Amino acid sequence: MVDVRSGIGEALPPPEVEDVELYHPHSWWTRYVFSQDAKIIAIQYGTTAIAIGMVALALSWLIRLQLGFPGTFELIDAERYYQFITMHGMIMVIYLLTALFLGGFGNYLIPLMVGARDMVFPYANMLSYWIYLLAVLVLAASFFTPGGPTGAGWTLYPPQAVLSGTPGGRDWGIIMMLSSLIIFIIGFTMGGLNYVVTVLQGRARGMTLMRLPLTVWGIFTATVMALLAFPALFVACVMMLFDRLLGTSFFMPAIVEMGEQLQHGGGSPILFQHLFWFFGHPEVYIVALPAFGIVSDLISTHARKNIFGYRMMVWAIVVIGGLSFIVWAHHMYVSGMNPYFGFFFATTTLIIAVPTAIKVYNWVLTLWRGNIHLTLPMLFALAFIVTFVNGGLTGLFLGNVVVDVPLSDTMFVVAHFHMVMGVAPIMVIFGAIYHWYPKITGRMLNEAMGQIHFWISFIGAYAIFFPMHYLGLIGVPRRYHELGEASFVSTSIAELNAFISVMALLVGAAQILFLFNLVWSLRHGREAGGNPWRATTLEWQTPETPPAHGNWGKELPVVYRWAYDYSVPGAPEDFIPQNQPTPGRLSHEAAS
Amino acid sequence: MSAPIKNPAAETVPRQPGLAGLAADWASDQRTFKDVSWGKAMMWIFLLSDTFVFGCFLIAYMAARMSTAVPWPNPSEVFALEIGGTHMPLILIAIMTFVLISSSGTMAMAVNYGYRRDRRKTAALMLLTALFGAAFVGMQAFEWSKLIAEGVRPWANPWGAAQFGSSFFMITGFHGTHVTFGVIFLLIIARKVWRGDFETERPGFFTSRKGRYEIVEITGLYWHFVDLVWVFIFAFFYLW
């Protein structure tokens, strides 16, 4: 299982392709703004994603203020509330998580980790970012259009999404949203092709697929999935745009609105749900798989131990990726589709628990008797495992049709997906930023601020989302602007809601501390050196930190071993970099 | 640009045929697809993604057609023409299909002459392919204007289910856009071939990378794909 070969006397394959021609920037503009260097593009992607993510964070505050203290804030009327939840969801899922994992970490880490000078098509990579920025701007612009952004809920279900009862339905909101998604998909495709081809065709000598760090495996598989899943969203957006602008009836049945028979007729709203969730379910794993990969590397590095069951981890990623394309209709148990479909999709959904459980066991077994350093990346990695197990377990409830039907459209669902694809991947993003910030900037993030950030975020997230499961179980519905007096739930839920809201404000504030840390440490952080975590993967072995244009100086690295040679018995150090031919002094030499 | 490290033992390792070779390629370093350049790999993966786009369009259209309660217009009659007093069902579509399939033939020949570095013939055949493509788009424009004149709109048509017009304009429009982009690419690449860019290794305007004759083949991959998609549209939209 352990893929280690000593380089000496070993047949090392000759280079198959000549070294690439890199674009060399001549001015400040081409170096830092219209840059074709994947590392700069990664920072541009990351900054933009975090910036729009802060908008979504502020929206979540407004949502919680309304839910915790209904009627107190006149600003948040029912229309605005729906606009806020819609934009919060869409921004977080697509414009923050997808863009940050694939466009941000993918761009920075793939070329460095596979030992390439850059992505294979730097120009298309640059275009990818600028088109993504355009998509973000179109989305943000919808706040300033007449009628405001769409309030259709992030799933944008027709027919309500394009009707006058929904904010933005007959105004600009839905048009801007659909256009922004179409632009995003075009831009993402350019980047995604880059990531896939770089991993498949641009690796260093000696870097086999089974020596790739799991981070690359996660991002690679997620990108392949995105390239196959986004087309469904693209088609759904185009069709709904036509329904809204041209008056076609792809998704629109015959409808009477405000006592008036609309021109539409004969369309199928369920068709949209199928198209949307054919994208939407893989999307969950497009966000989760990079997180799985990154967290594996964080745990292995900070526990100074090789990842347990590397090959199983790789195959689990691939199998999860494949299975996630045949589970989409478990989001549609209450849509009125054929019950036999529910049976099929419940089965496939529960089968996904198997490879996922393999991954969780392997993370725990990697920790077992490891030399665990409770660094900030490790803390966030541990928080991820706990949170992911929690969210995964409630997924078993929602995956079963009979249990899902009473729970659907309650706060239980909100709690479930926030745990599993909100909090859990965000924990990994934080861990990854604390882990790779020293490589990106050359300085460590401040530890004290990081500890405060971690504990408030971790405990706070549980204070927010644990009670929400309970609210859902007793029947509090989601997407209600104000519950008012309901006979089926006790009035005491108001206090719980207020508590959740206060916690949400606090956790949000902790993120501002994190952003301050990012900026403060740029100048005042401790000097990191080239390899502060004593990690094995190639990005820590660059001649310069931060890595220069072209990454590797004159000589491309040659890879001799897998990414997880930690605490190898007999080796002088407790890690052996992937590009080191021999373990260093062997044990018998050390003894003599 | 590092000098290749000499390792004769590795260089003489023969490539295995069949499944063992496939496994060896996937288990190897550097490249998974050994004889495939970056550009070609990118085009193949893009086409896979684009297949899903057209697949979704066609499946959505089929779902609409099968679930509609109103009768679906008969495509043979809708797309029939009166030529010289004779009523000919689907005649224009047949000619369009013939033109597009022929363009795939000229494209394949262009690829062949490209690898033989026959600049003139390559460029001429690419121009011919582009001409066929433009003719296809032109006939499509004629077809659209004829249907529009007969009262077909995206939201309604005189003969039955409204989704007929919606699907027709959406799917053929999206395919026609693909053909149009293909024609533009063909013209750009043909110009480069004609000028001898790939002989002189002139760097590209945007990418500043050296061009190679392989780009003719990559353009060809795209062109054949667009052609293949049309076959499915022809079968599922017009013949059904």
Question: How are the SSEs ordered, and which strands pair?
Answer:
The complex is a heterodimer of chains A (592) and B (240).
Chain A: H1 28-33, H2 38-68, H3 78-114, H4 122-141, H5 173-201, H6 214-245, E1 256-257, E2 260-261, H7 269-302, H8 310-323, H9 339-367, H10 376-399, H11 401-407, H12 411-441, H13 447-473, H14 493-524, H15 587-591
Antiparallel strand pairs in A: 1-2
Chain B: H1 8-11, H2 18-26, H3 38-67, H4 75-78, E1 81-83, E2 86-88, H5 91-115, H6 119-149, H7 162-195, H8 197-200, H9 214-239
Antiparallel strand pairs in B: 1-2
Rg over C-alpha atoms of chain B, rounded to the nearest angstrom: 23 Å
- In what order do the strands lie side by side in the largest sheet of chain B? 1-2
Outline the low-pLDDT stretches of chain A.
585-592
CATH architecture of chain B: Up-down Bundle
The chain-level mean pLDDT of chain A equals 93
- The helix/strand series of chain A, from N terminus to C terminus, equals HHHHHHEEHHHHHHHHH
Largest interface: A-B, 62 and 55 residues
CATH secondary-structure class of chain B: Mainly Alpha
The count of DSSP E runs of length 2 or more, i.e. the number of strands of chain A, is 2
Q: Indicate the overall shape of chain A.
A: globular
Q: Give the helix/strand class of chain B.
A: mainly alpha
What series of H and E elements makes up the topology of chain B? HHHHEEHHHHH
For this structure, the CATH topology of the largest domain in chain A is Cytochrome C Oxidase, Chain A
| Quaternary structure state of the chains depicted | heterodimer
* Overall pLDDT confidence of chain B: 90
